[in-house]
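Subject: Protein entry, chain in single-letter code together with its fold tokens

Area: Proteins and the way their chains fold up in space.

Attached in line: The record itself begins immediately under this heading.
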Amino acid sequence: MTFLLAILGLGLLVGGAELLVRGAAGLAGAAGITPLVIGLTVVAAGTSAPELAVSLQGALSGRPDLAVGNVVGSNLANVLLILGASALIAPLTVSRQVVRVDVPLMIGASLLLVVLAEDGRVGRLDGLLLVAGIVSYVVLQIRLGRRGAAVGPAVDAPPPVRGGWPAQVALVVVGLGLLVLGARWLVNGAVAGAQAMGVSELVIGLTVVAVGTSMPEIATALLATFRGQRDLAIGNVVGSNIFNLLAILGLSAVVSPGGLPVAHAAAAFDIPVMVAAAVACLPIAFTGYVIARWEGGLFLGLYVAYTVYVVLNATEHDALPAYSTVMGAFVLPLAAATLLVLALNAYRRQRGPGPSPGG
């Protein structure tokens, strides 16, 4: 029965993503706002609904590891898994706004979590600070969206839609409902299986729940990539990460009695890895404002490597020491060197003779 619900949940995710992408793209055209901003706000907030439900439930039921692990793991899955898979399907063109505004904000929110969790807890005042941050972010996006629409139509702007904005809002609402229900069925089955294996709640949150609650983002980003709405795909990922850190973690800390305790393992390893993944987006995006297929493959490989480490560490597998040595001595330094070379080459091109396009 659990397996059947997981399959049905996957079907609902695909159908909900189709409706959500159609509605969001149409809503952008009807409202005179670029698809990028719709992806960064409406779609990002909507596809983060499963993370919100899981994290709030974890905070209220006294399972803070599940709440924190869900947010951190989802952000890692969004960047490494979703952007990587989307770029493998088709190279993703990254807008200048994402590189200059949204990715730095995502990095800043990630670093803010490091600071707030330094004492081992995200308190209620910290949570209010995070919530104030998401309100400011949405206001900023609306202003940027109107300014961008006034300059000219977006490259990925959808054709005129039938039924106007009410029909598009209806598509978005129905699509979100299917996404949330599908994710719930899928996550419930996965969590039941993991708990039966005796896996800790932090690991469940970082892996099974994180990927499960990211299924709406995965389905939406992949479908948007297939449909040519690549601004929507990238905006969904970056916006979802910002919503996860500011809105979901903030609200979870506010409603949790005494705030959210942060496990030492998460503060020492998983959160720094999340920050590193966010920082890695800058050199990738700066290389011609395109995420190439091989760069998507690099992201996917890093996500697989991280997941394997988490599983080996959780099960205290005999292969963990050797795996950690290989990762620390070869794989991670090689990935870091690759990203550094990309960043330096992009910087040299921008400093070269002649004005940069649109600069």
Notes: Residues 164-196 form the longest helix (33 residues). The chain is about 80% helix and 0% strand. The longest strand covers residues 92-93.
